[in-house]
UniProtKB/TrEMBL annotation:
UniProt modified residues of type 4-aspartylphosphate: D53
Protein name: Response regulator
Domain of life: Bacteria
UniProt-listed Gene3D superfamilies: 3.40.50.2300
GO BP annotation list: phosphorelay signal transduction system
Keywords, in A-Z order: Phosphoprotein, Two-component regulatory system
Residues annotated as domain Response regulatory: 2-113
């Protein structure tokens, strides 16, 4: 299983990664701090799940989320951004508000993993 984490704050990226690896130790995690870097990862080896901050170093991850949707990769936004700012087609996507509690990330990871298996 391969999990993408898109987050431009290193401490938060590490925290999400630690939660994922604690829950699923055999997972490969890939971290990107920008939409550009994340799109390169998406175009590479297949992904199974993704956690996306909305506001990263080079803009918003909405285009990335739409690309993941096209590739049938389940994802969740992990962001303090206002849900109302999202494009209509992404307003109802899964979301963990920042600041988050580790169990919120773990719960979403479990839900995404189940979705990926179906």
């Amino acid at each position: 299983m391969r999990v993408l984490i898109v987050e431009d704050e290193p401490v938060i990226a590490l925290e999400i990664e630690a939660i994922v690896l604690d829950r699923l130790p055999s997972v490969e995690t890939v971290v990107a701090c920008s939409v550009r870097d994340a799109l390169k990862i998406v175009d590479g080896a297949p992904l199974d799940l993704a956690f996306l901050d909305i506001d990263v170093t080079d803009g918003k991850t909405y285009s990335l989320a739409l690309e993941l949707r096209l590739k049938h990769v389940p994802f969740v936004f992990v962001s303090g951004a206002d849900r109302g700012e999202a494009p209509d087609e992404l307003k109802l996507e899964r979301r963990v508000p920042k600041p988050f509690r580790p169990e919120s990330i773990a719960r979403e990871l479990d839900a995404l993993a189940r979705k990926d298996e179906s």
